[in-house]
């Protein structure tokens, strides 16, 4: 008899806790929506997912300055890309390629040098 009463108390108590948890979760979601936390979290996730290399980072990777001519950038790119293709890191090779792409758009926008089309 005592076991049956104890089992009923456990079942009722767990049901009560589950309902309280669901209600608290719904309230937390409502509060987050009101304060903009949910929107901010989504924006941060999108920013992290679509992180684009900056011009400064691209110049650091290739070891060039703002005054460097496009032909010199291509020479540096070719050397670094080939070094990492033979016995280097694929990660570094891809960073070198992304740096060249980034600077390509910068130079195309400025109308300097002759970046390929």
Secondary structure elements and pairings:
Blueprint lengths: L1 H34 L1 H13 L5 H8 L7 H18 L2 H21 L7
The number of E-state strands comes to 0
Uncertain runs are: none
User: Secondary-structure element order, as H and E?
Assistant: HHHHH
Overall mean pLDDT: 83
Structural class: mainly alpha
Q: Strand-residue fraction?
A: under 5%
Radius of gyration (CA) equals 29 Å
Please count the helical segments. Answer: 5
Broad shape:
elongated
Biggest sheet record: none
Q: What's the end-to-end separation, in Å?
A: 85 Å
Helical amount among residues, as a percent range? over 70%
What does this structure look like?
By secondary structure, this protein is an all-alpha fold. The protein contains 5 helices and no strands. The radius of gyration is 29 Å and the shape is elongated.
List keywords for this structure.
mainly alpha
Care to give the gist of this entry?
The protein is mainly α and 117 residues long.
């Amino acid at each position: 008899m005592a076991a049956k009463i104890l089992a009923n108390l456990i079942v009722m108590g767990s049901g009560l806790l589950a309902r309280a948890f669901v209600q608290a979760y719904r309230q937390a979601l409502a509060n987050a929506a009101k304060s903009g936390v949910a929107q901010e979290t989504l924006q941060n996730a999108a920013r992290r997912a679509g992180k684009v290399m900056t011009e400064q980072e691209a110049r650091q990777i290739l070891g060039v300055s703002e005054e460097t001519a496009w032909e010199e950038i291509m020479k540096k790119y070719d050397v670094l890309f080939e070094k990492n293709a033979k016995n280097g890191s694929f990660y570094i090779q891809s960073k070198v390629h992304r740096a060249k792409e980034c600077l390509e758009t910068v130079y195309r926008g400025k109308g300097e040098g002759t970046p390929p089309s």
